[in-house]
Every structure is written in C-alpha cells, then in structure tokens.
Design goal:
The complex is a heterodimer of chains A (306) and B (245). Chain A is an alpha/beta fold. Chain A has eleven helices and 14 strands. Chain A folds into two domains: 216 residues, P-loop containing nucleotide triphosphate hydrolases (Rossmann fold); 61 residues, 2-Layer Sandwich (Alpha-Beta Plaits), CATH 3.30.70.80. A six-stranded mixed beta sheet of chain A has the order 6-7-8-3-9-10, with helices on both faces. The longest helix of chain A is centred in the middle third of the chain and has 15 residues. Chain B is an all-alpha fold. Chain B has one domain. The chains are: A alpha/beta (306), B mainly alpha (245).
Chain lengths: 306, 245
C-alpha cells in the first residue's frame, strides 16, 4: 500500500519544558482511516498541528507523499484537508462563502465551483443554513461547516480533530457514513474522544498517553491486549428470579433501576450465563462487549500512569 | 494572483460585520477633518494644501498601523492561524492580500484629497510626487507588517500600536511648520521617518523641503530595506505562538 503520511520519531518540547510529544512514530497508508485517541493533554492536537506545519517539531521528521513538510511546506496546502478541534469561524462569512472560498483557493471557478459547492453542502445537510452567517451558527453547525471546508480543500488526506464533537446523533451517524465512504478516495487521520467513532471508522488506532504511543493496532487487536473480565449489563422481565439465580451461582452483581451489572472472567462463561438467564426469565435489554475496547483503553491509560 | 484576489475578496467580506466602524474610521472622521480644514476661513490655498498633504499621511499611518498591523498580530493568534490553515493559502499570501486590501480601503480618501491638492497646486513635479507617494505607501506597509509580526501579544499590541501612531504623528510636521521649530526639536523630528515621508510628498507640490530630498529618500529606502529583511525572515516561519507572555 502507498504510504501517505509518515511521522518518524517526532518529539515536541514547549518553551516551558513540557514534552508534549515524545518519539512518536505513525503511518497512514492510502485508503486507511487512522484513529488517534488518548486522555486530555495527551498530545494528540500537538501532533496534528505539527503535521499541519503550525508547530515545528523539536526532533523527528514528517513526510507527506514522500515529501518532507519542513523542506516543502506547500505539500500541506496541496494535499491536506483539516478540521480543527474548536468551532472556529469567520463571523461575517456565510456557510456558502466559507466553503466556497476553500474551493476558490483550490482553483475552482464558475460552473464546477457551484456544482462542487452544492454537492458538499447537501452531503453535510447544510442546505437550510447555507446563507447563515458564521455568528448565527450553533457550535455543531460550525463544526459541520469546518468539515465542509476540509472536504473542499483536501487532496489525498483528511486530518480531522474531533470531527463529530458537538454534533447531534443523527448527523453524527450520517457523517460517519460520509467519512467511511471517503476511504475509497482519501486517507483519514482522526483524533477523537468518541470510542464509538473510532471503533466504527478506524482501521488502526494509536493510543497516546503523556506524549507517547503506548498501544497501536486495530480496535480488535487493542481490545485483546489485556485479559480483562467481561462486563455486561442487562435487565429481565423478572428481577427477583434473576437475583435468586445469581445468588445461587454466588456471583457478585449490582442492581440499579432494574439493570443488573456484573462481570465474569471468561467470555464463554458470560455467554452461558446470558443463555441461562434468558431461558429462565427472558432478557429485555442487554449491553455486552467482550473484550471491551473502552475498558481496555481505560486500563492501558491507568497502567501507563503507574 | 488569483489566490491574492480571492483572499482580498475574503477580507472585504470578513469586514462586513464591522462596516459601521470602518465607515466612521476610514470615511466619516477623515472626511470631516478634511472638511474642517477646507472651510477654515483664515487659511490661504497653499496652507490648506500643506495641511491636507499632512492629513493624507496621518490617515494612512493610522489605518495601516492600527488596522493592518493589528490584523497581522491577530492572525498570529492560535485560533486564527488554525482557521486559516483550513484553506489552501500560505501565510505570506494572506499578508500580501491584507496589505492590498488596506491600500484599497484608504485609496478613496487619499485619491480625493490628493486630487484636490493637485487641482489647486501651482507647481507639481509628477515624477517625484508619484515616487514619493509610492515609497510612502510601501514603507508604511512594511512598518505595519513588521510591527504585526514583531508583536506577539495582541492585548499589548492593541494599546501599543495606538501609542506608536500617536508618537509618529505628534513628532512630525503634519499640522505645524517645520521651519518655525528650534534646532533641538528639528533634530528630534528628523529622526522620525514621517517627517521624511511628508518631505517626499510636499516638495513635489512646491513646498520648501525640511531637509534635502535625497536624504529623505535615502533614509526611507534604508529603513524599508531593514523592515523588508525582517519581514522576509519572519513571514515564512510563522508557527503557532508557543509563548505570548
């Protein structure tokens, strides 16, 4: 596969001595969606800003399509579509103008400009607000506008910093579908706090804690890194009967608002238990993820601090 | 070129929300001062032109340093740099576009007042006037961009740029006669580049020089070169400010 982005041993130390990134290695290949996750202050946005040329790495190199971005910074403007983390906007520009200018800077004019602009606006469900000024938009709509600018501007790679933060659940699902469809033409690098987002979209994920990559792999690979108990939550049509069953089996559980929470050591034990409970009392709701990606991430972060 | 024209269009549309402020600062106030000068009954024609020529320079200084300079300082703030990074336009191109945009903003008042001066002047050296006017604009653009790039802290810049403008205008014979000053004050005023800008614009209109015109051109060209060298070095290496205090 062709390598689109190659981050090699990148370290960033701020003037106050804080090491925001420490020896980070990261690769993005063509047609991949890569996720960057980590706690607040881990260094995800610092890394993205270095990829965009907004911050200069203290050590290391970043190449885009084989070109060093420090020696040839114009490659960033040619190839990278970027959506910032914060809802940034020009107060006096309408949605149509904000995205339109991105297309104009890429060389679009006349009919192709109007066509592409309408395509992007419709793709992101911004039709109703296309003539709204920046100051009239909610933060969620501003994020959608920024995504539109990124789509208009991008060449071979989209770099998105929390692309669906502040966006409602319906638009969020729609955006995820849009981004998944873009895989065919572009690579994507997404920094996110939304575990559902990274699990759904990403081919590979980098977990950054305190400026270092502490885990890397597909969501399934990361989930299997640690042997953790299988946790699940469920409710049944007869809570009393279920409580008796769990007590008989000497299983520890929590019951709140009719929902049982418990954990078992082995996945197979959990599946057998669910079958038995369902046969006896009928399960009306269940949430079961094993191995749990979210739990694994939390444990990896905790372990790295220890 | 098309990126520059697109960026100028973008800048003008971005200023839409501030239309009332712009109207007052760039048109209403300057025109009202010019009008007061013109209707002042005690002034002769040549005196009016003397004041109006100074008035053009002070308007350009005020607009370029306080608006363009602040704009460039503002563009170096993290959020603004990040916002512009979403577009396929480099920082140097944005700066050039901003400069041209503010030249266009001041052009109406400059052309109208200069037109009046030229129409009412007895003597005009066109070549020197055009050279002087162009060098004045280039120099003030370079100084404004220099200040914008040098000043990291937008909050301090907000006050400091107004102080700089005030000092430059106060210590220059914009509204008073250079010849009537004592030698000490003349020496101080000759350090101020605005005195030389005034010289370059007034001498072609037939006024007596404050100092040899070649000296004024040389001084301004030298300062412009220093400013250009600094701007060239800083403009291509603009990253998010890591420390503004």
């Amino acid at each position: 596969m062709d390598k689109v982005l190659d981050v090699v041993n990148v370290t960033k130390i701020y003037p106050n001595g804080k090491k925001a990134n420490a020896g980070i290695n990261l690769e993005v290949y063509k047609g991949e969606i890569i996720g960057l996750i980590g706690p607040n202050g881990a260094g995800k946005t610092t890394l993205l800003r270095q990829i965009l040329g907004l911050l200069k790495p203290t050590e290391g190199s970043i190449t885009l399509l084989g070109k060093d971005i420090v020696k040839d910074p114009s490659i960033i403007k040619q190839e990278v579509g970027f959506e910032p983390q914060y809802p940034l906007y020009f107060p006096s520009l309408t949605v149509e103008e904000s995205i339109g200018f991105a297309l104009k800077f890429k060389g679009y004019k006349g009919e192709p400009l109007s066509k592409k602009l309408s395509q992007i606006i419709e793709l992101l469900n911004l039709g109703k607000v296309r003539n709204y000024y920046g100051y009239q938009l909610s933060p969620g709509l501003i994020k959608l506008q920024l995504l539109g600018v990124a789509l208009a501007q991008s060449g071979s790679i989209l770099v998105l910093d929390e692309p669906t933060s502040m966006i409602d659940i319906i638009n969020k699902n729609h955006i995820w579908q849009v981004l998944a469809d873009f895989k065919a033409e572009k690579s994507l690098l997404i920094a996110s706090h939304d575990m559902n987002e990274v699990k759904r979209l990403c081919d590979r994920i980098y977990l950054i804690v305190d400026g270092k990559v502490i885990a890397e792999g597909s969501p399934e690979q990361i989930s299997g890194l640690l042997k953790l108990p299988c946790k699940f939550s469920f409710s049944t049509s007869d809570s009393d009967q279920t409580e008796k069953l769990l007590t008989q089996k000497q299983l520890e559980y929590a019951l709140e608002n009719g929902i049982f929470d418990l954990s078992v050591v082995e996945l197979s034990l959990g599946i057998d238990l669910i079958k038995e409970i369902n046969d006896q009392t009928g399960i009306t709701y269940i949430h079961f993820e094993a191995p749990s990606f979210d739990e694994t991430i939390m444990k990896l972060v905790e372990n790295s601090h220890e | 070129m098309s990126k520059i024209s697109t960026a100028i269009e973008m800048e003008f549309k971005s200023l839409r929300i501030y239309w009332l402020q712009l109207l007052i600062v760039v048109f209403v106030m300057p025109f009202s001062y010019a009008f007061i000068i013109l209707i002042s009954g005690n002034l002769q024609g040549a005196s009016v032109n003397y004041l109006l020529s100074g008035y053009i320079i002070s308007t350009i200084i005020s607009t370029f340093i306080n608006m363009l300079g602040m704009r460039i300082t503002n563009m170096r703030q993290q959020e603004v740099l990040e916002l512009y990074s979403t577009y396929a336009i480099s920082f140097p191109t944005i700066v050039i576009s901003e400069c041209l945009a503010y030249v266009l903003i001041t052009l109406p008042i400059v052309l109208i007042v200069l037109g009046y001066i030229v129409a009412t002047s007895q003597v005009i050296n066109w070549l020197l006037l055009i050279c002087g006017a162009l060098l004045t604009i280039v120099f003030l653009l370079l100084i404004s961009v220099y200040l914008g790039l040098a000043m990291k802290n937008m909050f301090i810049a907000n006050g400091l740029f107004q102080v700089i403008t005030w000092v430059l205008i106060l210590l220059a014979p914009i509204y008073y006669n250079f010849e009537t000053l004592n030698p000490v004050f003349k020496g101080i005023l000759l350090i101020n580049p605005v005195t030389h800008l005034l010289n370059m614009v007034r001498v072609p209109l037939g006024f007596l020089p404050s100092v040899n015109l070649a000296y004024s051109f040389g001084y301004i060209v030298l300062l412009s070169i220093f400013a250009f060298v600094y701007v060239s070095k800083r403009i291509n290496s603009t990253h998010i400010l890591e420390k503004i205090f």
